[in-house]
Amino acid sequence: MKTRYEQIVDATRIASRGSKENLGAIIALAEAENSKPAVEDSKRNLLLAIDIQNDFMEDIGSLAVPGSRGDVRRLTKWMYHNMEGLTQVICSLDCHSVEQVFHASWWIDKEGNRPEPFTMITFKDVESGRWKVANGETERSLEYLRNLEMGNKKQLCIWPYHCLEGTFGAKLESEFTKMLYFHATARGCAPQMIYKGQNPYTEMYGIIKAEYDTDGYMNQAVLDAVKEYDAIYLAGEASSHCVLASLEQILEYYKDEREITSRITLLEDCMSPIAGFEAGTMEQFKLLQEKYGIQIQKSTDVTL
C-alpha cells in the first residue's frame, strides 16, 4: 500500500484520552489507495471485533483490561497487513444505562450500602435479605438470578459503571477507529455496528444473546453473517467474558455444522482477560477448539 501504518495509527496514542481521530485525513489517504472493492473478494473474510471500547482500555477505562493497548496495536497491524483480504468488519459495542442489574445502583444492603465493584450476588443472597433490590424489581431480579443458576451461567457480578450510553467510555478506541474507517473507505464496505447490553434486567456478554431474558432475544443478523463468510476472525475485549461468550453462542447455534464452526479463528494475541479472571480462559478456548474445530492463532501467523 502507498499509505504507511504509521500514517493511520499512532501507536503511542492507543488507549489515550488525547488521541485525535482526524478521520477526514484518514479517509483521504484510503481513497488514494484505489484498492479492490470488497465485493470482488473471491474469498470472503470477516472480522468480529468485540467491544474495543475506551472503558475496556488500560489506564483510561472504568473496566480496564490489562493488555488491551497491545491487543489494539496488534489487531490494527493485522488489519493493515491484510487490508486487501479483509472483506468486512462487524463491531460489537456494550451500551448501558446507570440502572442495570449488574450495576451498584440496582442493589442495596440492610445498612443502605451499595455493593462494591466485583461483588458477586446470588439468588440466596437476595432471598435471605443480604442484598435488596433498590428499585422494587425484586421478583424479576430473583427470576433472573434463579435462571442464571439453573442454566449454569456466570454468577451475577457487579461491574463498575461502564460503557454508559453517550460517554467517552462507550466509544470505540480512537486508533482502532482510524484503522476501521481506513479499511472501510479503501475497500468500499461500511463497518457494521452491533449494540448490546441495553436490557436493564440482564447481562449480555455475548454478541448473540443475553445470559437470560424472558423474550429469548437472538441476533440472527450476526449468525447469518457468520454463515455467509469463508473465514471468521475474532478479537477484542475481554477474552474472559465478551469474546468467550460471543464465541460460545455462535458455536452453540452451529453445533451440528462443523463446516461452519471450523471457519472460525481466534486471534489470541488480540484479546486479553479481565484481571482476576485469567484462570481457565485459554483452557475454555482449547476445549472449544477440540469440540468444534476452531483455530487459535497469533495474528502474525495469519495472512488473508
From TrEMBL:
Statement: the UniProt record of this protein carries the keyword Disulfide bond: no
Superkingdom assignment: Bacteria
Sequence intervals crossing the membrane: none
Gene3D superfamilies found in the cross-reference section: Isochorismatase-like (3.40.50.850)
Record's keyword terms, sorted: Hydrolase
InterPro entries, alphabetized: Isochorismatase-like_sf, Isochorismatase_Nicotinamidase
Family indicated by similarity: Belongs to the isochorismatase family.
Record's protein name: Nicotinamidase-related amidase
Species name: Sphingobacterium tabacisoli
